[in-house]
Write a structure and sequence with these properties.
Two copies of one chain form a homodimer. The first copy, chain A, contains ten helices and 16 strands. By secondary structure, chain A is of the alpha/beta class. The two termini of chain A are about 45 Å apart.
């Protein structure tokens, strides 16, 4: 099994546990082919059939308690210093190991805020409560939100490399698109051309195929998550893409705007809107730095857009990107209820975020762009080449 | 979007709700690209970004409350009579709709027993509790285990067709294998030959690629979930496969045994073990019928094997097959703690199960077979062609 990346990520765990003062992180899972805790690929990269407990103590080595048929495969990963198999019930083994470790807090994967840290199902939570009913451990369960979001958010060099490669391939495909896009194509035709190109590049989809890329031709379509239609590209109209590929399990997520016509024919309202979006993103990129809070970054772009006389965008400025296009953790978003506490998250070195927003023009529909950035010690590095002007076809 | 199957499955919901006396089924989800409730593909087939509530009332039409950017795509499926979009928070809209429906019980997707019915994360459960804190609805939440397992387990004709096709392709590949298998090949080489064949047939993996097919050459390897090694096939040795493909989202799951040598060279202990496994499976197939309880079916085969002087197999006799190789719901298994209440589940018309078990020989390792069956009104139909004799190469 190829698991160098997982070995490196597991090495990160110990430091994070010390930092957030957690004695023990318990990843508590079963039948992961049905529904896998999103953290599993990051720290394991395989599947478990029966109830399994992966234990990461702050002081000590990782340990796995797994069903007997899973034991060989778990051993083979080399990720755990000890693999304890069981046949009929995990309960006794789990309690015995917990007693030996004696944690005062046990962090488990639930989170109201962060979907990437919310991999524990409610049923599995109830089972754990039941198993621990006779011990005091049942009162020591806390959310691992902090652990998971740091582990997931702080990309190691291998992860950054893969994301950069995904971004590069996405940009190459946008360049190829300039050779095949023309007036009179339907959104559906255009999407299938992108799929062909992805196939040639050997990359997968950063989100579901039907909506990737999102292709929006002309002024009448609200951007978002609806798939391509038989809308056609037209002289004097805009064409919008939201596109992300998956390269070796890591994603890109980029939006681009095309215009059918000569640069000099771009209507003033379109140019003004385009520049507003472009410059709002740049303003946020100039401002962002480690230690900033998510909603502060969002506010930079949001105020910028409002100051230019546009209505504010109805989404967050940016989300993290990694194994998923929406990778969880701190969000560069407004403090709206639907975002929970994620906009209060702290921006950290090694995070990869999108910066994306739209404004609405009077006659030409929405204009929306999206860039990908890597947080550095001093600020950020733009890992996509920001779109500077409308791409005229 | 191709969703005829989902439309048919959603039609099944109303009847099931009446049968189990549930006023309302609430599928409560978010950011499904990170971790999707396993039921979602069955009744929707797309993704949701923000917190979303899919409401299926016993008396009334399905309704979806979704984030504004998901609304178009949700409408487009035609699965819901009404799609209610929201921008900042789902809470008020959800409570308003619940007030209008006035359910005395609200079934949500958590289950200690059935992983396929346990799609609600613990964090999302806590959020729901919080949203409903000021209403009496918070006291009306019950498990939807019964609903989900019936919906998932009772295959409609389209689902059965796809599973049968997956089984057929699996069998074709086993037939092709007879032309390329020979003494001196490693497990790894053999697996890659199977992958080539799958590619030619255009099918996916019923479970993770590394362990599919499981290939076990010779007597020294414990069957189960460990991947292929550089073990070589040898004259006079057995070769075991556990193999499943995915055809149009539906799976097969079949085990076969090969022997390197002439039929007359099969050692008596091997032949005896093979016949025991084959006949134990047939005994269970002859006995199974709608209304039987899972553990009763398991006991038929388990006793059969023990009566022949072998140790009992350390797993369940059979699991359901569908969108997943392990599809959840009633299990044909012993009443061991790790299986929860699933062995008490009732066998129903339209269920697809595996029948699988192994015995251990003194000198030749394990012998294990697995067939797939469809439950009919009178008993079952074998949808795989049962292996009658060792396949001699």
């Amino acid at each position: 099994m190829e698991n160098d990346l997982q070995l490196e990520k597991v090495k990160q765990v110990g430091g994070i546990l010390k930092e957030v003062d957690a004695d023990l992180w318990l990843v508590w899972i079963r039948e992961t082919s049905q529904m896998a805790d999103p953290v599993l690929d990051l720290i394991y990269g395989g599947e478990f059939v029966w109830q399994s407990a992966l234990l990461f103590p702050m002081n000590g080595k990782p340990l796995a308690i797994v069903g007997n048929f899973d034991a060989d495969a778990t051993e083979a990963t080399g990720l755990f210093s000890r693999v304890v198999p069981y046949t009929k019930s995990i309960k006794e083994v789990l309690i015995k190991e917990l007693n030996q470790l004696g944690p005062s807090k046990i962090a488990i994967n639930f989170s109201k805020n962060d979907v990437a840290a919310d991999g524990l199902s409610h049923g599995m939570y109830l089972i754990l409560q039941e198993y621990l009913a006779d011990s005091d451990f049942k009162n020591r369960l806390v959310s691992s939100e902090n652990i998971v979001s740091k582990l997931r958010g702080r990309k190691i060099p291998t992860e950054i490399e893969r994301i950069k490669k995904a971004v590069q391939i996405t940009e190459s495909i946008f360049e190829e698109a300039q050779t095949f896009l023309k007036v009179g194509m339907t959104e559906i035709e255009i999407q299938s051309k992108f799929h062909e190109a992805m196939n040639r590049h050997g990359v997968g989809f950063a989100w579901d195929k039907d909506h990737n890329p999102a292709v929006d031709a002309g002024p009448y379509k609200q951007f978002g998550h609806s798939g391509p239609t038989s809308n056609m590209t037209k002289e004097g109209h805009l064409l919008h893409f939201d596109f992300g590929v998956r390269y070796q399990d890591y994603c890109s997520d980029i939006q681009r705007m095309f215009f059918f016509g000569k640069p000099e024919d771009v209507p003033e309202q379109v140019q003004h809107a385009f520049e507003t979006v472009r410059d709002a993103i740049q303003a946020a990129a100039d401002w962002i730095r480690p230690g900033a809070l998510g909603y502060e970054v969002d506010a930079i772009a949001r105020e910028f857009v409002k100051d230019r006389g546009y209505e504010e965008y109805q989404h967050a400025l940016g989300h993290q990107v990694g194994r998923q296009a929406h990778d969880g953790g701190a969000l560069l978003g407004p403090r709206w209820e639907r975002y929970g506490a994620t906009p209060m998250g702290v921006v950290e070195v090694g995070n990869v975020f999108t910066l994306e927003l739209y404004v609405t023009t009077e006659n030409y529909g929405q204009i929306s762009l999206e860039e990908d950035i890597l947080i550095t010690r001093k600020g950020c590095e733009l890992i996509s080449r920001p779109q500077k002007e409308l791409i005229c076809i």
